[in-house]
Fold this sequence. Notes:
single chain; mainly alpha; Serine Threonine Protein Phosphatase 5, Tetratricopeptide repeat; 67% helix
Amino acid sequence: xxxxxxxxxxxxxxxxxxxAGPLVALWYADxxxxxxxxxxxxxxxxxxxxxxxxxxxxxxGDLSNAAYWYRRANKPVAEASLDEEWKxxxxxxxxxx
Length: 97
């Protein structure tokens, strides 16, 4: 799936089938379901989930917690807007799918 199709899928009721957890979490985050997105990544030990987890804590405004998760993901603390970061993470994860 490419980025445009992923972004368009957010208008649907359910995430695309067969997508990895971190991408599903981003899908829910874009729909405004922060808690659902957080549930998906909080027990996932992967670096991809940690990156999404960091992004979610940025949304929440908990920047110290976000910084912890960026370290776990081996990523720098994001300075881009939340929309730009959502796109960056989505594109990176879709490129690995």
